[in-house]
């Protein structure tokens, strides 16, 4: 749950925190829909980059200057979109907004994680396939390869905990906001 007046950047920081990432990579959102039998995609990136080989002119926007209510306006046709983090590991998280509501709620109660499972994501592990390989190696105890990569600082596999996720969410968002925006 998040305030719709927040920027897409803030929403990105919220997702980075919720998935237990460190915020050491670029991120963006992709919103796609079909119009007259042609797939249309719009990209919202941090930092705003000129990527003519990937994104057509006029279809790229800044996450800093777009808020959630603009992103989910009725003209956008649907509320399915992709959050992409670390264009090397290429983490892609498909998201679907279940509802957009106006509610009386205390601002200190949001953003809030409402559910989750699994272990979160691990920075620089090699994306989805690398994470699965690490989980298998961790379960079998065959971690020599990972000790060579990470030394004695092996990434932790901590099961999702809703209370801990919400306890850490706001402080981590503040850190991520400073981290990204002071470098913008």
TrEMBL record:
It comes from Leuconostoc kimchii (strain IMSNU 11154 / KCTC 2386 / IH25). This is Plasmid pRiA4b Orf3-like domain-containing protein. Gene3D superfamilies: MM3350-like. Residues 2-140 form the Plasmid pRiA4b Orf3-like domain. It comes from the Bacteria. Pfam families: PRiA4_ORF3 (PF07929). InterPro entries: MM3350-like_sf (IPR024047), Plasmid_pRiA4b_Orf3-like (IPR012912). The lineage of its organism: Bacteria, Bacillati, Bacillota, Bacilli, Lactobacillales.
